[in-house]
Specification:
single chain, Rossmann fold, 5 domains, 7-stranded antiparallel β-sheet, 11 helices, elongated
Length: 694
Amino acid sequence: MTGQVIFDPLVPWPVLWTLGALALAFVIFALWRRFAGWWLRALAAAALLAAVAQPSLQREERRPLSDIVLLVIDESASQKIADRPDQTAAAVARIEAEVAALPNTELRKITVEDGAKDAGTLAMTVLSQALAEEPRARVAGAILVSDGQVHDLGLAPALPAPLNVLLTGHAADWDRRLMVTTAPAFGIIGEPMTLALRIEEQGEMPAAEAGRRVNLAISIDGAEPETHVVPVGQDLELPLTLDHGGQNVVQLTVETAEGELTDRNNVAILQINGVRDRLRVLLVSGEPYAGERTWRNLLKSDSAVDLVHFTILRPPDKQDGVPVSELSLIAFPTRELFVEKIEEFDLIIFDRYRLRGILPAAYLENIRDYVLGGGAVLVSAGPDFASAESLYHSGLGEVLPARPTARVVEGAFLPRVSKLGARHPVTEGLEEFSPDGAAAGEPGAPKWGRWTRYVELAEAAGQVVMEGPDKAPLLVLNRAGEGRVALLASDQAWLWARGFEGGGPQLELLRRLAHWMMKEPDLEEESLTATAEGNVLTITRRTLGEGGREVTVTAPDGTSTQLALRELGPGRHEATYAAPALGLYRLSDGDLERVTAIGPASPREFEAAIASTVPLEPVVGPTNGGFTRIEDGLPDVRAVREGRPATGRGWIGITPRNAYQTTDIRTAALLPPWAFLLIAAGLTLAAWLREGRR
């Protein structure tokens, strides 16, 4: 129990102080005049002021509260290196035993995991949260078991007590790490690009290892690595060339030396998208017609496409008597386009083209060879394709996916996506891009307009993704050698562009078709892809086949996991996988293989793996705490006075807070007001009598 005097004045404090000043002035005057009872008058004035101030005695009953010690345990990835887990466990056990032996002291344990999105070790954030949950008046100290590599020092709290760090690791540790300083997010296919990197050495390097040249292996998509011998401690620029579009997983690996602290930072994994510089398209229109501009507008609207467009306005066999010198038409540069520069084009489109002697047979055979070697040809067929002048009757016909029957069907019909087309990325979900116009034909038909003509095809090879009346082939896709060919057996797609019967998704269809021809990875009908968000892989398998699918995931440590994929839609199967660690993962379903990476190019936890006091010194120093290496021995825990150093040889300190909880408060007046008045009157009378007798 404790007590103290409190006041509850009858007047405001400024008035009371004024009265006190007047009383003091009168006392000084009495002293100056040498009144014999001046001191009695002073006591009387004090009694009157005390009566106005109303002093009371307040008594409190208090219950002592225990002190709290915060123990923050770093369990991030860098704390799992070498024997650090054992050091951490031993330190935690020692602190628990020491604090338990202290009187009236409690221990709060908090663990720190890896920060989300490669944020590193957020020990100060966790310490701030723990401090906010406890009364500051009870916190006697904080102890951090860590390697000292903390990445949120800017969030360090203002501690009311010492912070001590028990440092894991060993003073003799050394490490070598690979650091990618600059890496592009995408690269041009077939063109060299540059990676900027550096190999750093940390800690006390052995004489045999310090500064020597090391082997650096580079692998793309898990292929056989290419090895370079590179220096250490220098900025390096490494050339790299991508050979395919889409995601390329590049793995850089530095050889691991004997005695090195960890090899986790000897590997960097980059995911670089391969893109084409410019998609070069050659569009040859056999003659002007209403739908000619549909192809041109589509291709010109894509900023990534360089379009070369020729329309044959005057065939060589036309005899109209106009002198050649008076013609303003450009001669068709056939040799330049189809012999000298044909390999520069990614796609050749023949729109209602027919054989009229403009392209010699040898040139058409050259186009066929261009397809077999990896090129792409798209034929948009009109009535000419069913005639004797059809491209099918040239050397190019050897790679076309269907044969014309010489029959052209006139009359309105509704194009439909075939059963196979519902699974193919070119036509999958095409109905979603349809306008809101009324559907033509029977109920359940696609909500797009009809076409009015198609060329009858036979012996269709490849993939029929769209059909005409009676399931006749309308759009046929196929592979020929290393290249691709497509045949659209109608020249009426432009009706959709003009809004006929509500129009249709002609831009989406033709865009997908053109990009499938140019081998865009997103439009591959047989593909195995994976995207990572955090440590969760989303695996997607696209296929034209039916039935269930499974995929085998091989982790960086070689362990395999079999996953069953669920079908989310026609031809699309998906599964999720929680990756247990950072690194390169291999996916396989028996037909396709894929590699993908979990984690950043250089995880922050391993940027500096050597245990160090340097990062935490600005935080620990102001609290009078310090650092103790666990390898030098586990410390005792002592109580020290506030403001004194809280660390020493073989011990660390906490500051007892002597906090308490008030359970009861009692207040009683020192004297009743009439007693003060009686005392004041008595003193005044005594002063008068003394002065009168004198």
